[in-house]
Structure formats: C-alpha cells, structure tokens
Amino acid sequence: MNPDEEVQARIHLVFQKFRDIRSARGVMCYLREAHLPLPVRPLHGPAPHEVIWQDARASSVRDILQNPAYAGAYVYGRKVKDPTKRRPGAPGSGHVRQPVDKWEICLHNVYPAYIRWEEFLANQAQLRANQLNYREELHGVPRKGQALLQGIVRCGYCGAFLHLRYSGPHGDFPVYVCNNDQRQFGGKRCQEVRAIALDTQIAQRFLAALHPDQLTLALAALAQLEQEEQAERKQWELRVERVRYEAKRAERQYQVVEPENRLVARSLERQWEEKLRAVEAVEKEYQTWRSARLAPITEADRVSILAVGRDLPLLWQAETTTNADRKQMLHLLIRDVIVDGKRAHGQVWVQVNWQTGAYEEFCYKRSVRSYEASADVETLEQRIRELNAAQLIDAQLAERLNAEGYRTARLHRPFTGGTVWLLREKWGIPTVKINGTEHNPAQWEDGSYSVHGAATHLGVNPSTIHHWLKVGKLTGHQLAKGMPWKIDVTDEDVIQLQEWLRRARR
Question: Which residues, by range, are in coiled-coil regions (predicted)?
C-alpha cells in the first residue's frame, strides 16, 4: 500500500464509486467531472519510479479494478501469450487475459489490502457482465435507450434473450424481438412484444415492490448524499495539501542554494514559480468546485428530500431521472423477465424473476390489429348485444361501454357511436329504431315525415327524397347513424319542390 495518504484516498474512492455506479467508464466520468486525477507510476527509466497524477481514463480505472494486488493477493499467470493473436511489428502483442480460476499462482494476504478478495471477484464478474453479449447472456451496462428491459427480457418460447429494434415512421417505438430460431436455423421469428406496454407493466410492479420501504430508501439516499459530499471534500483537501507541500519544498530548495551558483538558482527559482502557479490553479479549481456544489444540507432540506424520497413514482417520472438510471434500479431488483405473446389469446404472459429468488406471473392485454385477435372480443360482443337489446342507440351504447372500462382493440381509445355502428354491422346486430321493430309511419308524432311519408306527400320516389336531403333541398336529422329520418316539410317546401318538378318534367 502506498504510504501517500492522497494516493490511498483516491484508490479507495475508485472502489467506492464502482460499488455505486457499477461501470468503469461511469467512474471515469465521475472523476473527470469532479476534477480528481488518478495516481500513475510510469515504469520508464531507472527506479525508483515516482507517482504522477493524470486525468482519469477508463483504462486506468479498469487497471485498478482488475489488479489483484489491491485485494492483498500475489498472483502469477494473469496473462498468457497466444501466437495466433500477435500483430506484425508489435512484439508485446498477443497476450490474452486468463480467468481467475486459471491463474497458476494466487497467494492471499500478501499485501495490505484496499478491498476484500470476495469484493475483487464480484468486481470482475460485474466488469464481465458490463460487456454486451447475448450469446453469453451478458446484458451490458444500462444505456440511454427507451427500452427499460433491454438485456434482461427472455423469450418464453425458446428461452433466448430478446433483441431490440425500433419501429414506426420515425423509428421511435421500441420492440422486443426474438429471432434466435430464425438466425440459428433459418426458421421464423418466435415473437415480438411492444416495449412501451411491457415496460409500463414492469415499472408498476417495481414501484409497488418498493412502496413499503420508501422511507428507508429516502433516509439511505440522504445519508449517501452527505457521505459523497464529505468524501469529495476530503479528496480536494488532500490535493490542495499536496500542491502546497510541493511549493514549500521547492521554496526550501531555492533558499538553501548558494546565491553565487546562478545556474542552479535560476532552475530552482523556475521550479518554485511553477509550483506556485500549480497551487494557484488547484485552489481556483477547488473554489469552483465548492461554488458548484450544493449548500450545506439544512433541516428544511432534509424534510424536502425525505418528502421526495417517499414519492417514488414522482421520482421515477422526473425529468432528471434518465433511462439509464431507471434501468440500473430495475437491474438491482429484477434478475430477468420472461414473456410469451402466444400463450394466451390477445394477451402477453409475463413472469418476473426477482433477485431474491421469488417470481411473479401475470398477463396484460396487448395491442392487436383487429377485434378477432382481442382478448375480450367475446365479452365485448356479448355486452354490445345486451345494450342493443336494451334499446340503447349507438352514441348511448358507446358512453356505457366507456364508463364500464371498455376500449378499442388497436389503439385502446374510448368508443364512439361510429365505432359501435361498425361493430354492429360486422356482427350483424340490428339497428335500434325509435319505433322499435314496427314499420316507419308516414308522419311522426312531432309532425315530421319519414322518407316514405315525405315521398308520398310530394309524389316522388324515396330515392329522390334521399337525394334532396343530400343536396340540401330538404332538411332532416337522424338520432344516430342507421336510425330513421325525421324530415321537416313545410308548405313553402311543397310549393318550391312542386314548381321545381314541373320545370324539370318539361
């Protein structure tokens, strides 16, 4: 273990942030945003090799996470040479990293350790799981895409992981697709499931599972905020302390040089000035960091944070919560999700396997292209027949269906009178008439005429009455589409239409 306190604190910080972020690149982004460089010891030139500080890189973070010495172990055989992977002109190429169980020598408790060996093994497993490889069942790091279950949703028919594709005119509708049989054996796709509907169902159950522990989670989040603030402040204090020490050391070196030895004095003076400029730059960065951080958490802030933490659905839907954050939360509780869109008619069967080993099964209605594929088509038809038999016209029938929770098959929208009329025509359900099953009278009780009544009164065919209604020579109305006409025929209309007929017959 390096005796430098700042080096130790920075290595501890890398492991701590990896426990939270679970991604080497995520740790690198955090260190760069916080302006915290990493210690590096370049093995160039004669020993001893000094520690220098460089901006964090993903490769540097991975080197720290994959180095067993930080777990106190001495190992041999981490890499072997593979001649088939050597590149021409690169003598150092061709090295292949070996898994832990194939290391030739592994001695524990040789060095002071930053982490336990079990945590080191868990870190290696997490780094491997961060690689996206469906064939090896590696779901990769949560990314920013819309589909929340990418990498953890399986096909209930063949067991393979479902891939993701985007459909729609603008390519913004994610769909989970199982093409394992098609890719391997030239068969057909197992199934396709729309991601938005499935993600919504899973998110509801995820939030419901966390509901009893909302207060505990809020308190843990508040404690974590305070710990992160203290850890970052400690890192900056150590960094400022280092550059101040180096400036003081350069000053002492300059003070002890003989004034007559101007060759050495000028060099030491230049080094001292460089160290002073470094102190000024680091202190300025420290002040910038402090101004960018939140003010100290007050009691009112604690109450507000706890209030937000208790409302997990609000936090889940917040604009500041990214899809990558939502995916990472889901992965903490859910191991995988199995779906089958063919097991139940018009429904998607789902099994959620939680990290605790428990599982949950449920079904939800899927979007379909026709009512024949709908899950409740028989119930809907039966209900429409019952309401039709109760003498409800199409508009009234649609209102009743909407009130009872029925929705259209494809777009899940409320019913309208026109939609009900189309379904009645499709299923052969008769129109509800204002006079029941009797023939339309020549004249209704309110004095208006039916089509046949108006035709007899004016001495024309019923088709002529329909034409006059269409072109506006007569006015009338229907209570609903398919209902009998009620036509208003005044004495003035009779005179004008008869005059028009005489001119037309000349």
Answer: 215-285
